[in-house]
UniProtKB/TrEMBL annotation:
Cellular component, GO annotation: membrane
Any one GO MF annotation of this record: beta-N-acetylhexosaminidase activity
UniProt-listed InterPro entries: Beta_hexosaminidase_sua/sub, GH, Hex-like_dom2, HEX_bac_N
Keyword Transmembrane: no
A single BP term in Gene Ontology: carbohydrate metabolic process
Lineage, opening ranks: Bacteria, Bacillati, Actinomycetota, Acidimicrobiia, Acidimicrobiales
Protein name: Glycoside hydrolase
Length: 583
């Protein structure tokens, strides 16, 4: 494989390449603002090397390309490259609110991966894990991000050409706050709500009031004060309780969309007035045109999210689960492609971004094939629609049991297809993982991640936005599972996982965290195998108990190598709940 084939991301145009012609001349750098935004050109002959760039970003990406082409002796091959991105803003969002708050070294590792994949935007999804001055009771046990952490990370991102953007959910997903007596009166449903008979949820949504808007905006502003960017994601997704409590009479009078839109405007307008650009999740807006009509004019972006690949199967759910989704207004039969998800906003005048995901959450070992299809669809549909940005999310639902390295392939692939989908659609992401992240010359870690990232779809069961192995390990999570597992297929999955675990021993990573990568993947594969054993059935409870118990302490150790201690007990509690069923 030549230097040009190993370029990451693959450039848009390579007009000429001759590895036999070498250039040792210093690189001449030329600014040419006529090039496309963030674009660059590289022209190398035997006696001259020229990097032409549109702007600072273009120079950074051009130099990144030259660094990859440069041989150990410092020479460059003869080459002509023209390159620029499909989508201007290529962002990543890491969930730091579902138990796992990363250490600084883990954040630094992530920034390095994002820079290599040409991301230029980063958000940390916060519900309660920021050290707010006057709210220690909500973050005390979470090992939260501090002002100092955010200032440090902002400087690090700035040095890599990445904008660090505040993310603070401000309407729904407020359960950690509303579980405390001090904040519970702010809830739409302070005593919780029975969504369907027998299914009662604790309070999670703020009542749509002026007082609650002021409360949420104070949280937003406190976080924003720690970073340079004036862009903020205020969330406001999945407000399922709205209209079931404090706002019930108002919703009955004017409708859910109006009530949601009125409160969203309370949050958005003051931020716009202070010169901020505001992002909101698009799920409620997509289904309520009356809410879209109430959005204040200005720099507001709807983040259109979808985490399934196009044509994702619809599982046949148990009656209670089907009734719950129906009560929440969730229709799994809706098209799972970005062109369809963008359609409600086509003539709205509202700016949009596409938001796919790593597909790592609720998977233990990844769903890499789903992630690739989802990310590529987002990149293609987003470019075709002219969206302003592409935001890859890495969620931590259910205890954030997947380790960071499980998401590495999706981070890399997402950045590459957002840069240029045409040349990176078929990227050998396993090879890129080992070249750009692990330094494993044996190619083992990338290959293992590729193998384990496909087992979720081989059991015969049908699951949306999760792996059946994770669903089997944590039956109390209520994941959307349908169909019946095929015992022979599950046995093959177990064999694949055991083989992958054995292969890890042959890995030779040279990255500073290489040992941690191997250790955390070993635990993750062990947990996935345990889920498969539960799916297969037939194992004695004592055997299952011993198998899972042997994984819990290594899980703790791997967690603490990457993440802060706050949240670890909550994450482990999910494993211990399953362990208790073997007593």
């Amino acid at each position: 494989m030549s230097e040009i084939d190993e370029l990451f991301p693959q450039p848009r145009h390579v007009d000429r390449f001759d590895a036999d012609v070498r250039c040792s001349a210093p690189v001449e750098v030329v600014h040419d603002p006529s090039l496309p935004e963030q674009g660059y050109e590289v022209h190398v002959t035997a006696d001259r090397a020229v990097l032409t760039h549109a702007d600072d970003d273009g120079r950074r990406y051009g130099e990144q390309t030259l660094d990859q082409l440069r041989a150990d002796d410092g020479t460059l091959p003869a080459v002509d490259i023209r390159d620029h991105p499909d989508i201007a803003v290529r962002g990543a969002m890491l969930d730091v609110s579902r138990d796992r708050v990363p250490t600084r070294s883990t954040l630094e590792r992530l920034v390095g991966i994002l820079a290599a994949a040409r991301y230029n935007h980063l958000q940390l999804y916060v519900e309660h894990t920021f050290a707010y001055r006057d709210h220690e009771d909500v973050w005390r046990d979470a090992s939260p991000l501090t002002v100092s952490d955010m200032e440090w990370l902002d400087d690090l991102c700035e040095a890599h050409g990445i904008e660090l953007v505040t993310n603070q959910n401000s309407f729904g997903h407020m359960g950690r706050w509303l579980a405390l007596d001090r904040y519970r009166p702010r809830a739409e449903c302070p005593d919780g709500v029975e969504i369907v008979p027998g299914v009662r949820w604790p309070p999670g949504v703020l009542a749509p009031t002026e007082e609650n808007a002021a409360f949420a905006l104070d949280l937003v502003r406190e976080q924003m004060a720690a970073v340079r960017s004036r862009t903020v994601n205020i969330g406001c997704d999945e407000t399922f309780e709205l209209g079931r409590g404090a706002s019930a009479s108002r919703v009955a009078e004017v409708g859910l969309g109006i009530v949601y839109g009125e409160h969203l405007a309370r949050l958005v307008r003051p931020l716009l007035e202070h010169g901020c650009a505001v992002q909101v999740w698009a799920d409620v807006l997509a289904h309520h045109p009356d809410a879209r009509a109430l959005l204040p004019e200005g720099d507001v972006t709807a983040l259109v999210w979808n985490y399934d690949p196009p044509g994702a199967p619809v599982p046949e759910l148990r009656p209670r689960q089907a009734a719950l989704l129906d009560a929440l207004g969730i229709d799994l039969a809706e098209p799972a492609d970005f062109a369809s998800r963008l359609a409600p906003f086509a003539d709205s005048g509202i700016a949009t971004w596409v938001v796919p995901g790593t597909s790592s959450w609720n998977s233990l070992v990844g769903r890499l094939d789903d992630a690739r299809a989802n990310l590529l669809d987002a990149a293609r549909a987003g470019a075709a629609a002219g969206v302003g940005g592409f935001l890859v999310t890495d969620w931590g639902d259910g205890g954030h049991h997947q380790p960071p390295s499980v998401s590495d392939p999706a981070w890399l692939y997402g950045g590459a297809v957002a840069w240029c989908a045409e040349t990176n659609a078929d990227l050998d992401v396993a090879a890129v993982v080992d070249r750009a992240v692990t330094g494993d010359a044996t190619g083992t870690i990338g290959r293992v991640l590729d193998e384990i990232g496909a087992v979720h779809g081989r059991t015969g069961a049908v699951v949306r936005n999760a792996s059946p192995l994770c669903a089997a390990l944590f039956p109390h999570h209520g994941l959307m599972v349908g169909g019946t597992a095929d015992p022979d297929a599950v046995r093959e999955v177990i064999v694949t996982l055991e083989r992958a675990r054995d292969e890890l021993a042959r890995a030779r990573p040279t990255a500073a965290d290489g040992g941690t990568i191997v250790a955390e993947l070993d635990v993750a594969i062990g947990l996935a195998r345990h889920g498969a054993l539960r799916m297969l059935g037939g194992a004695a409870p004592d055997e299952l108990r011993a198998d899972l118990a042997a994984l819990i302490e290594p899980y703790r150790e791997a967690w603490l190598d990457r993440s802060r201690p706050g949240g670890l007990a909550d994450s482990v509690a999910h494993l211990e709940r399953t362990l208790a069923t073997y007593a």
